[in-house]
Write a structure and sequence with these properties.
homodimer, Arc Repressor Mutant, subunit A, Tetracycline Repressor, domain 2, DNA-binding, Tet_transcr_reg_TetR-rel_C_sf (chains A, B), TetR family transcriptional regulator (chains A, B), Homeodomain-like_sf (chains A, B), HTH_TetR (chains A, B), DNA-binding (chains A, B)
Chain lengths: 221, 221
DNA sequence: GCACTAATGTACGAACCGGTACGTTAGCTA
DNA sequence: TAGCTAACGTACCGGTTCGTACATTAGTGC
């Protein structure tokens, strides 16, 4: 990728199945994220690789399967990142805040992934549903949230009656919306939600919101 | 739309520019929302109207302009609904909660609109940016939020340092995500965020979250 | 009732695009 | 080094799809 190719081999197309496959996946990710499933062009993906369209069909079978493979890899990256989570040594409040911040950062750093998820939702998650890999991918983050939540609720720190899935949805909502809808939001309300100058503001706002919700005084209930 | 057509006119195509235009717009909204911009088929839109493809080009010019017209009308509907907002007679806490609930309901009732917004974001809001109508559409809801927020902050009820745009983003995030991403979320986490049985739960959760955030004890700051 | 135009229908073209038939070669193995 | 196969390239096909040229008619104004 970093212009290291000519020196290694003078001319003749070397054969490297793994590299070719990975290169197709990389370019396909970019193209699908750029234009959506129907807007993406198989020829365009091929043109950006060092191989030809023929190889896309050779390795993946077709456009549909290629998109599924792109999704599988993208979700795999997320899952791997979630497995690195290390927040359980913190007290529940700090742990949840840290988790929210990491989710925030992750969304910001994986713009292509956010687009792929939006696109997949337009297609009603049909590729995910049909994928065996994605059916069983699980979510390490959910387990982490579950344990922190249990600790916080047991100690009486957390008053809210939520489970891990709902809390995950709450955190993801804000992170996802901020990135995915920044174009229409910016155009209509004149505010760029991803302006670096406001990044810390929104990151703190998310943490404040989640903690306020979890620890709110619920005397009135 | 309710099978009232044959009795009125026996056969010959009656001419009604307004009706034809509106019918095209209706079907285009459905088709674009169903399949995305590139996935939508002009022929399919035409087939669902009582007129022909020719009329789409006659009235709108092309696919691109048709999509812009669809967006313009969809956003117009939202704006009109927002102008009906009547919550300022309530105290700030109740007013914000009510506003959040109305936003929640509105998202749930306009699934096509949510999809169109997702699609427009994939295209980086290019149609909105290019539309004069949408550039000047404004947001009545923002003004309402601004006033409630000012009242709440002045009285000391609201401790959070947010402005109307950010609060609107917070509320919209949850409402939008719940509907727009329900397919991938459901497939991956096994929970249907739009299950009617959980509707009240999420509606209350949103209100709780926003109010908790706005009124949180910020002694530690 | 005549003329004019807005509104509508038909038929078709040309480019695009996913997919494939067919041929070739690098590199490993025996 | 001969032979075999995974890996690759070229050229092309056929259906799809946006868009339009051309013909027609309903309704309106005079």
């Amino acid at each position: 990728m970093t212009s290291v190719e000519e020196p290694a081999r003078p001319r003749g197309r070397t054969r490297d199945a793994a590299r070719t496959r990975a290169e197709i996946l990389d370019m396909a990710t970019q193209e699908f994220a750029r234009a959506g499933y129907d807007g993406a062009r198989v020829d365009e993906i091929a043109a950006r690789t060092r191989t030809t369209k023929r190889m896309i069909y050779y390795y993946f079978g077709g456009k549909e399967q290629l998109f599924t493979a792109v999704l599988e890899r993208a979700y795999g990256v997320i899952r791997d990142a979630e497995q690195q989570l290390d927040v359980e040594h913190l007290d529940p409040v700090a742990a949840i805040r840290r988790l929210a911040e990491l989710t925030f950062d992750h969304h910001e750093q994986h713009l292509d992934f956010i687009r792929l998820v939006s696109i997949e939702n337009i297609h009603e998650a049909e590729h995910i549903v049909a994928s065996e890999k994605l059916a069983a991918i699980g979510s390490p983050a959910l387990d982490v949230i579950r344990r922190i939540l249990a600790a916080g609720q047991e100690s009486g720190l957390f008053t809210a009656d939520v489970d891990a899935v709902d809390l995950h949805a709450m955190i993801s909502s804000f992170c996802f919306f901020r990135v995915a809808n920044r174009h229409t939001f910016g155009a209509l309300f004149g505010r760029d939600l991803t302006d670096p100058a406001r990044r810390e503001h929104y990151r703190a706002m998310l943490g404040d919101m989640v903690i306020a919700y979890l620890t709110a005084d619920r005397a009135e209930d």
